[in-house]
Amino acid sequence: MMWRVLPLAIAQSALLAGGQVFLKYALMRMKSFEWTWAFWGSMLTNWQFAACGLCFLLASLLWMYMLKVFPLSVAYPLGSLSYVFGMVAAILCFHETVSVYRWMGVALIMAGCCLIVK
Fold this sequence. Notes:
lipid a biosynthesis, single chain, transmembrane transporter activity, lipid biosynthesis, 6 helices
């Protein structure tokens, strides 16, 4: 039964990481923060910002379903998969360098998630 939660956790974590990627792209394109209509208009007409919101909305809906169906002690720790997706996104989208120590952390997160769904 617990292995049923894993695909949902993967999808939810991927949506969270995707939302963060779109948010970073949106912020990179936006003007400097100001309390002006021009700033807020540039934010609200930025398609990456809208995509960020959509990803977060879908992730939240999926999270609500997971909390309804599965124990919190199983669902909540699986949210750490978003760190793994975030690391991969940093490499693929922003060409960041990831150290061996961070990869070791990713491996520990993955091992922990496997132990949780057993």
